[in-house]
Amino acid sequence: MAKLVVEVADASDLMPKDGQGSASPFVEVEFEGQKQRTSTKHKELNPQWNEKLVLDLNDPRDLPTSTIQVVVYNDGREKVPGGGGGGQLKNFLGRVRISGSSVLFSEPDSTVQRYPLDKRGLFSHIKGEIALRVYAVVGGGGGSSFTPAPEMPGVEERVEQPAPLREIDPNKGEEEEEFHHHNHDHDHEEMMKSKKKHKEKDKVRTFHSIPTGAAAHHRPPPQQAPPGAAFPPPFSGGGFGMGFEAHHQKTPVIETRTDYARAATPAPGTSVMHHMHMPKQNPEFLLVETSPPLAGRMRYKGGDKTSSTYDLVEQMHFLYVSVVKARDLPVMDVSGSLDPYVEVKLGNYKGKTKYLEKNQYPVWNQIFAFSKERLQSNLLEVMVKDKDFAKDDFVGRVYFDLTEVPLRVPPDSPLAPQWYRLEDRKGFKGREGELMLAVWMGTQADEAFPEAWHSDAHDIGHTNLANTRSKVYFSPKLYYLRVQVIEAQDLVPHDKGRLPDAYVKVVLGNQARASRPSQMRTVNPIWNEELMYVASEPFEDFIIITVEDRVGPGREEILGRAIVSLRDVPQRLETTKMPEPRWFSLMKHYSDDEGKERKEKFSSKILLGLCLEAGYHVLDESTHFSSNLQPSSKHLRKSSIGILELGILSAKNLLPMKGREGRTTDSYCVAKYGNKWIRTRTLLDTLHPKWNEQFSWEVYDPCTVITIGVFDNWHTNGHSDIRDQRIGKVRIRLSTLETDKIYTHYYPLLVLQPNGLKKHGEIQLALRFTCTAWVNMVVQYGKPLLPKMHYAQPIPVRHIDWLRHQAMQIVAGRLARAEPPLRREVVEYMLDVDYHMWSLRRSKANFHRIMSVLSGVTAVFKWFNDICFWRNPITTCLVHILFLILVCYPELVLPTVFLYLFVIGLWNYRFRPRHPPHMDIRLSQADHVHPDELDEEFDSFPTSRPSDIVRMRYDRLRSVAGRVQTVIGDLASQGERAQALLSWRDPRATAIFIIFSLISAVFIYVTPFQIVAMLFGLYMLRHPKFRSRLPSVPVNFFKRLPAKSDLLL
Asked: Which of 740, 783, 776, 767 minimizes the C-alpha distance to 629?
């Protein structure tokens, strides 16, 4: 009996249906009265099933005239108490109707196709697509083919030449279906019966679906089905049942969206697939080149465009209304007072100024901006109203015809505001009341753009408006503070009968470090220890030095304290001598009951060396993707070599981050390069924002990285305790960009979360790196990355991570005090504050990076081995000839090597990267990471997980460390064997080696070097007939040398 197999691979970009911005989808396939369904994927808008649904095919000859219906539902049983039963809710998410004429009767020839989900009715709100693979089989072989009877040539033609995929028109014959999303199973069955009664010939529309070319590797772990979920029944008996069970264990060869985090262990067969097929990068995570209409690019093409500093973004026009002030306003209240405010109305958009109490001459100085794309009227109405308890009173108004509004293009001077007399409701101008206004059409290059109240934020209050504006920030200037704790004199312990066990504690702001206790217990201790801190301008903090006596476990007594202002600490440039140490008096510490007013005639002393290091660069981000390498002192900084310009154009397909609040996403961008941070304005309640804002930075070093992040603003409605959510981040290295070239691409916004890798959308950026000093830029490649002080007096490795963390905290705290604040969670995400934390995923990624680097060396050895074993006789003969030429003319060796490198570089120029780099999912090992590894990576420090999970992870770490330990031990053994050649640990082996060395020295001395090299080379390249399969004599001799592994306990 024939079977119809529908492989449900995955779906993407489904409509959220559970009221929380997500859905729990499952797929139901109906064919000739049969129904099969997949498992439910809980809370997933981009689900992966990789399941096969098998249905009976009674007569294969009727398949071309049949229709396969695939429907995606949201499993809404969580809304029903008890969770189960036949009346559970199903929300319609979309469907696909496939014509049987497109189904192939051969599994190997069938490919995965992506189908857009269709609506069920006129009022359905559906989006997304689903990946399916449909084929028919006869008998037991999955790859068996079926040939119809000769009397059906049409069908046979379709099998040999597959017709394009077809979908039944969903808008015909569907009037009897209801238009609601929430349907019960019983209602759905009744609806399908009524459809069969009214069945008529459907109109077929053809669409093109491009099959994926490469096989992608996926590991779908078996998930435990929730209660009430139906699965395809297992088939028993016959060859087909065996074939189905075998195929169910395989991972489908399909390029699909991946969701990476699952709750169980991968299937047994997936590891085999992983080693057999090296998957290509998912195209969903790659760059997409774009060609937006940018003025900079058009000007290069010869277009006659007006010059503008905003040539990397699309020009956006706005209607600006500047409300300055009013005068001679009439009194509206009985009490003789007036609380005026101005309301600017354009179509459905309305903006209001603040109301000023009891003021007939108010001054507002507020600007409103209305996007030209959203203008809903040709008439602008500006009204002055009086704030009142019940209903605001009308004072007067002014009308503007938008066709008469002037256009202002920078660098024109700002438009001068004018006085306009207010009109009453009947259009008559009264004697009292005038309003000063300025109305003009402009672009985002206008000076009023950053401070304007935009029309998309008209429902935000004045207090929250600042959180939506575009701003530029600068990081504080950071210095390293070096504290040398040398010695102290005349310490007076509280217990006169014991010598103090003294140590020094130094505190600067939130940074506290302590020295080691003195080696000898004495009243004149000596430490000679150095401590490092991070200080920032302006130097408002104080250094608090405390000498404490460790009386017992957990008990310390303060022996004295000194306070030094940072302003009094001298600065040191480059490698000059440290400033002379100074003696500081230690103030005696008294408790309240001992009296604070006691004056001491005698005080202990401490000798300290203090200096602010201005020759270092304070690292606030990882050196691997640092954006600033300049020293703290501006006198030591390099000159600028160019300008980096960034245009933040738009984003698309963002995920709704506020589904529970009935909104989508309030997104804004942050970019960081050097000490300059920028923030775009927040675009409210949209999944496809268009910012079109341009920024520029001076470039001092080409080997730096710019970071762009996208965030969801949670502070537009007065929330102060909620963190802004991450949407994604992009890093671009400047040295990979060509100069004076405009790059425009969509970059994927990827975020690694505890439940797996998520794509939150795509951001469109325009980049241009302009070099202004070519000689300086070329010279930079020969200079060290960091300033001179990092190499002359390097900072101890044990201090670097701690100092970087403190610098990040200072930068985050300072930027959080700006208005609007650049919040701590944003700064920490941009600076990768947790980059140094342990991650098994990153360890795997670094291991694969090492193996990738060593693969080139391995390839050279493999090539040389092929030459030695004469795998390609022609190549081996050419190598022999080249070797003999180089031996006869040794002066050609180095020129040949460098010429070879030049030719390889010139050849690889054809294959150079044409796009900027972006986050590599394959390199990051984020495409098939285990859920437990992610849970460990996102765990806090110290851990907050249960003891059994921590024990399991510890055992896993011990297993990995055991393998590393074995490799390190093998490397140590090889080195010890090399040392044993002359150490006489094995006297016979050492005697053999030194006698051989003497004979070799005499032989090489009396024989010309060219003869020796030729003999050695010909011996290494000898024919396999003259080779033995056993290891060579030198290898056997080396392996017999003793190592110290037998001395280990």
From this structure: 783
Residue of 32, 33, 85, 36 lying closest to 233 (CA atoms): 36
Instruction: Average the pLDDT over 979-991 and give the result.
Output: 93
What is the distance between the alpha carbons of residues 1002 and 815, in angstroms, rounded to a whole number? 74
Nearest-angstrom CA–CA distance, 689 and 923 = 30
| Res. 589 pLDDT band, cuts 50 70 90 | low
Residue 316, token pair as written in the block: 């956006």
Please state the pTM of the whole predicted model: 0.68
Minimal CA–CA distance to 453: which of 349, 351, 563?
Answer: 351
DSSP-assigned letters across all residues of 587-615: BPP--GGG-TT---S--EEEEEEEEEE-S
End-to-end Cα, the chain, rounded Å: 68
Residue 459 backbone phi and psi in degrees, to 5: -95, 15
The CA–CA distances, whole Å, from 993 to 978, 984, 986, 996, 1006 equal 11, 10, 11, 5, 20
Per-residue pLDDT at 175 = 37
Q: Which residue has the tokens 């504080």?
A: 476
User: Could you identify the residue written with the tokens 């009453």?
Assistant: 424
Q: How many CB atoms lie within 10 A of CB 428?
A: 7
Are the C-beta atoms of 523 and 549 separated by less than 8 Å? no
For residue 108, the tally of other CB atoms under 10 A from its CB is 10
Closest CA to 750 of 695, 708, 691: 708
Residue 569's pLDDT is 93
Assigned token pair, 657 = 């981050």
Give the dihedral sign, CA 629/632/638/642: positive
The CA distance from 108 to 558, in Å, is 81
* Exposed e or buried b per residue across 666-701, where buried means at least 16 C-beta atoms within 10 angstroms of its C-beta: bbbbbbbbbbbbbbbbbbbbeeebbbbbbbbbebbb
Query: DSSP class of residue 118?
Result: B
State the Rg of the chain over Cα.
38
Which DSSP symbol is given to 683? Answer: B
- The number of beta carbons lying within 10 Å of the beta carbon of residue 857 is 9
Report which of 128, 98, 124 is spatially closest to residue 116, judged by C-alpha positions.
Answer: 128
d(CA 858, CA 850): 12
pLDDT over 90 (residue 645): yes
CB-based contacts of 903, cutoff 8 Å, min separation 6: none
Q: Per residue in 377-424, pLDDT tens?
A: 889 999 999 888 778 888 889 999 998 899 887 777 888 999 999 988
Note the pLDDT of residue 218: 39
Helices (H), 702-839: 774-780, 789-792, 797-815, 824-831
Residues in the chain: 1049
User: How many C-beta atoms surround the C-beta of residue 510 within 10 A?
Assistant: 10
Q: From 368, 442, 436, 366, select the one nearest 405 (Cα to Cα).
A: 442
Give the Cα-Cα-Cα angle 179, 194, 118 (nearest 5 degrees): 40
Q: How confident is the model at residue 698 (pLDDT cuts 50, 70, 90)?
A: very high
Q: Are 709 and 496 in contact (CB under 8 A)?
A: no
Q: How far is residue 636 from each of residues 614, 674, 889, 945, measured CA to CA in Å?
A: 9, 16, 50, 48
- Token pair in block for residue 724: 């802004």
The closest of 305, 307, 344, 338 to 323, measured between CA atoms, is 344
Count of alpha carbons within 13 angstroms of residue 176, beta-carbon side: 13
**Residue 26 token pair:** 């499952």
SS3 string, 853-883, reads HHHHHHHHHHHHHHHHCCCCHHHHHHHHHHH
CA distance 437 to 419: 7
> For residue 155, what pLDDT is reported?
36
**Nearest to 807, CA basis, from 784, 829, 831:** 831
- Can you list the positions of beta strands (E) in 891-943? none
Query: Which tokens sit at 417?
Result: 């505001």
Q: List pLDDT tens digits, range 352-389.
A: 888 888 888 999 999 999 988 878 788 999 999 988 87
